[in-house]
Amino acid sequence: MLDMHEAGRAPATGTGNWALRVRNLRIELPQGGDIVDEVSFDIARGEVLGLVGESGSGKTTVGMALLAYARGGARITGGEIWINAAGGPVNILAHDGPALRRLRGAAVAYVPQDPASALNPALSLQTQLAEVLEAHEPGLSAAEKDRRIRESMDDVGLRGDAAFLARYPHQLSGGQQQRIGIAMAILLRPAVIVLDEPTTGLDVSTQNRILEVVRRLCDEHHIGALHVTHDLSVISAIADRMLVMYSGRVIELGSVADVFNRPHHPYSQALLSAVPELLSRSALVAVPGSPARPSERPPGCFFAPRCALAEGACQAAAPPLALCEPDHEVACHKAGAVATNAPMHLPDPDPVPARPVLDVAGLHVAYGRLKVLKGVSFSVHKGECLAIVGESGSGKSTLSRAIVGLVQGARPGLSFHGEALHPHARKRTTPQRQKIQYIFQSPFNSLNPRQTVASILGLVHDTFNRTGADERQRACIRALNLVGLPARTMNLFPDEMSGGERQRTSIARALLSNPEILVCDEVTSALDVSVQASIVNLLKRLMEEQGLTIVFVTHDLALVRNIAHRVLVLEHGVVAELGPVGQVIDHPAHPYAQELLHNARQGDLTLRVARQGEGG
Amino acid sequence: MLWRTIGLRLLLGVVTVLAVTVLIFAATNVLPGDAARAILGRAATPQAVAKLQAEMGLDRPLVVQYLSWLGGMVHLDMGRSLVTRGPVVDLIAPRFGNSLILLCITSAIVLPLSLATGIAMALTKGRGFDNIANTLLIALAGIPEFIVGIVLIVLLSTQVLSVLPPTSMVPSGQTVLGNPQVLVLPVMTLVLAILPYLSRLVRSALIDAMASEYVVTARLKGLPERQVIVRHALRNSLLPAIQASALSLGYILGGAVVVEFIFQYPGMGTALRDAVGSRDLLVIQAVVLIFACGYVLFNLAADVLSIIVTPRLRG
Predict the structure, then answer these.
(1) Are A448 and A582 in a shared domain?
(2) Is some CB atom of chain B closer than 8 A to the CB atom of A102?
(3) In three state form, how does the secondary structure of A485-524 look?
(4) Is A120 within 8 Å of B214 when comparing Cβ atoms?
(5) Is the pLDDT confidence value at B52 over 60?
(6) What is the mean pLDDT of residues B241-266?
(7) Is there a contact between A47 and A225 (Cβ–Cβ < 8 Å)?
(8) Contact across the interface for B236 and A121, Cβ inside 8 Å
(9) Comparing C-alpha atoms, which of B24, B191, B175, B184 is closest to residue B95?
(10) What is the nearest CA distance from A50 to chain B, expressed in angstroms?
(11) Which of A410, A448, A476, B201 is 20 to 30 A away from residue B152, measured at CA?
């Protein structure tokens, strides 16, 4: 906590329509060195500022710092954070102890990322809501408390009756849990709320409803909001202005329309070009290299090593944040120059010849009494990418696991090259197991943390081949090169790699068994957008060069547009629609597919930006 | 819903105890020789053995023998001791009472003490009190309880200070409650044996809870730190402590044979040791069955308590 600033000193600009002023915020790691530095921005009353950045950019650290809180031993060592609270402007960093406690929740409130773990599982909703009032306004009568809680529940569109409030967090859906998180944050009508990725992990339709609630509450109650997210589409839906962070620094700040339409920083341009579009296939552009960690930052501009425009001046000195047009600031020596062209649009792919490799005929899967798949039939053709889409609970993940033989309770119904596949991987023949490989959703727990890449890959090689150490080494390096990783990756442990590198390693592991079919289960959903672009490009290249067949399970229809030949829409364990990608996305026939597409259009970045451009 | 769950656990407990009775009965019957031979000794004639077997009902089918033994247990008719020839119940009842007293006093001390120590350590994690207490507790955990007991005897009742009786033998006709000084050393030894285990468990559970997202949320809601700790963190960290407490109570009731032996404490542990020494089969059976019932009962209580503090388990 900062002692050199006096509590209660008003900022130079006086009290006006502002809600939050952050000046020169600096947060340091326990071992020294900064996570974020030189962060300054304002939020007006009723305004939503979107804060975007990739993992490690420091965006969540900045969000929590607004409540004078830092995680894991990090310390806020410099700057001022002024909040225009009901009792007058206050620098929250100048307070500690009980004074700070009284500001948290009342002047500035926090909506956590994952409500499932942020709500206390042992306490009822009533207790968790009422304790906010009790801590800040002791002496409130029971009737008044109930009235205030009901009002907040009303605000977020939930029932405020005693029966509902007596529930526990696990009895609510994910969307309801997040509404409780928001109700809790606005209970005391704070001047500022910090929303930390509040819609990550929710369905598009649930996500849209939550964003509407946040937007409406900020308008109605004149709350200034900082909305932290990695999802540019969310920003375009909810924010008035946006701030882009890279490696702990603000690199661009302006209105959402300005930044989306005229991104001045090469990194902002790259981020926008990496987002897949729903309505047309495009050549996604991935940023080369990986983000600079705080300990490995280069001198000068931190983005320079990955920047196509970088020159001597960029390595010599860090560019300051400066106006590039009215109300639009950027920190770049080459501001405004085009580093990444808008992505090139491509035609939808021609359908591949109908040569089935995998046939699914009337597949049933049940977990106990719960029927997850109820007679699913389709064929996967050689060399195609078949996308399987649906909302959570549609059975798409179960279907992908059934194909590789990983679910209990599957009935027979699969055949590979005309030969029946046993429901359980264990009972399949070695060539059958070898030819159908599976890539897991999260590369963070699908690689053994105690083994080097060499032993992770070597094990797969040895399972299917009998060779000496040299040949094993060559085969593993070949696989790594195929996925764009250098040979020295062999000596690394998984936690020494970034998320994208880990997912590439998982793909290399699958390729080592020389598969015909790769089953990819939400393989990019744990990754940042620029990393997602590079993985999608890799899979496309493998399809073309290696003749791989891909079954691609996802909830992201824009991603489907960019990779798939055909799309299968799954609704509650039944095939709702199956057809070429252009047809299903542009002219869905089945009502459920139409609803999915409607929601996807609502959430699509390009469409949102276009809508805003039209002034609506 | 809660009552249904509790009823189900109770039923499972009864099944467990029944399974234990089968095991005990089977184990004592597969041993070579039977009670009749044990009583009459090696020199007995086959006729004498057969006569006594018939008297004791040992010539009946095993299932019938088991059922009659089980029926006797239910009615607290545990048969007669092979050694003293007196009813087993009369032999065990006072011992059971003494063990129960030891159990109550020890747990009344060790449970709150472990909780307090664990909380204090968690709240000073990596600093003064935590470092000192942790070092001491780990050292203590490494010392077997019979050495702790002997050291206590040396310190408090012989060489250094001579304030307490080194053994807990009670004159016949008196209870341990009438001689409270004999309880001090056994209780101290048991407390020192259990404290490291329980308090370190509370410590790590509370540290985990303090690092959880809901504690961060509670802090950022502006709740007083005391409330963050007690209402949010502690409540969720009680679960492992409850289960571990049940195991500790079972240990005090039954497993403390060594501690009872050191101090010659007249409890179930020494009763079991004596019975094993003299091959008093019926006493062994009865004592082991009581131990098993104790474990089942404590775990049942722990399960019910867990359900009460964990809404998710209420189904």
Answers:
(1) yes
(2) yes
(3) CCHHHHHCCHHHCCHHHHHHHHHHHHHCCCCCEEEEECCC
(4) yes
(5) yes
(6) 85
(7) yes
(8) yes
(9) B175
(10) 21
(11) B201
Torsion of CA A610, A52, A207, B218, to 10 degrees: -160
A85 touches B at CB < 8 Å: no
Residue A247, domain member (yes or no): no
Does one domain contain both A496 and A407? Answer: yes
Structure tokens at A113: 């990322």
- From A114, A124, A132, residue closest to B221, measured CB to CB: A132
What CATH number did the domain enclosing A43 receive? 3.40.50.300
Going by their DSSP bridges, the two strands A224-229 and A192-196 should be labelled as parallel
Q: A442 and A582: one domain?
A: yes
In chain B, what are the domain boundaries?
A: 98-278
Tell me whether B221 touches chain A (CB under 8 Å). yes
Residues A576 and A473 placed together within one structural domain of the fold: yes
Q: Which stretches within A353-487 are classed as H helix?
A: 396-404, 430-435, 453-464, 469-482
Establish if A123 touches chain B: CB-CB under 8 angstroms: yes
Rounded-to-integer distance, Cα A533 and Cα A527, Å: 10
Average confidence (pLDDT) per 10 residues, chain A, 616 residues: 39 69 94 90 96 89 95 91 93 94 95 90 94 94 94 91 93 90 94 91 81 92 94 89 95 93 92 88 84 84 91 91 92 86 83 90 88 92 94 87 89 90 92 93 88 94 89 93 89 87 92 94 85 90 92 92 95 93 94 90 78 57
Contact B217 A110 (CB under 8 A): yes
Report yes or no: A106 at the B interface, CB cutoff 8 Å. Answer: yes
Q: Do B231 and A131 touch (CB under 8 A)?
A: yes
Q: Which of residues 256-285 of A touch B (CB under 8 A)?
A: none
| Whether residue A608 sits in one domain with residue A498 | yes
- Per-residue pLDDT, averaged over B248-275, amounts to 85
> How is residue B64 written in tokens?
């019938």
User: Cβ–Cβ of B224/A120 closer than 8 Å?
Assistant: no
**Domain end (from A239, A258, A288):** A239
Taking contacts as CB-CB distances below 8 angstroms, the residues of chain A near B237 are none
Among B residues 69-98, those touching chain A with beta carbons less than 8 Å apart: none
Does residue B261 carry a pLDDT above 50? yes
- A365 shares a domain with A342: no
Would you call B61 an interface residue with chain A, using a CB distance cutoff of 8 Å?
no
Confidence of residue B218 (pLDDT cuts 50, 70, 90): very high
User: Is some CB atom of chain A closer than 8 A to the CB atom of B125?
Assistant: no
Fold type of domain B98-278: MetI-like fold (1.10.3720)
A524 found inside a domain: yes
**Shared-domain flag, residues A302 and A373:** no
- Of residues A69, A109, A170, nearest to B312 (C-beta): A170
Do A135 and B223 make contact, defined as CB atoms within 8 angstroms? yes
Residues of B in contact with A105 (CB under 8 A): 220-223
Answer whether residue A79 is part of any domain. Answer: yes
* Set of chain B residues whose Cβ sits within 8 Å of the Cβ of A117: 212-214
**Mean per-residue pLDDT for B263-287?**
86
Q: Does the residue A379 lie in any domain? A: yes
**Is any Cβ of chain A less than 8 angstroms from the Cβ of B204?**
no
Residue A76: predicted pLDDT: 95
Q: Which residues of A touch B219 (CB under 8 A)?
A: 69, 104
Rounded to an integer, what distance in angstroms lies between the CA atom of residue B227 and that of residue A374? 50
What's the pLDDT band for B315 if we cut at 50, 70, 90? low
Whether residue A74 contacts residue A30, with contact meaning beta carbons closer than 8 Å, is answered with: yes
Distance between CA atoms of B78 and B282, rounded to whole angstroms?
A: 7
Domain span including residue A312:
266-323+334-346
Q: What is the largest CA-CA distance in chain B?
A: 86
**CA closest to A170 among chain B residues:** B312
Query: Residue A34 in contact with residue A26, Cβ under 8 Å?
Result: yes
Split into its structural domains, chain A has a count of 3
Structure tokens at B269: 């542990």
CB contact under 8 A, A101 and B222: yes
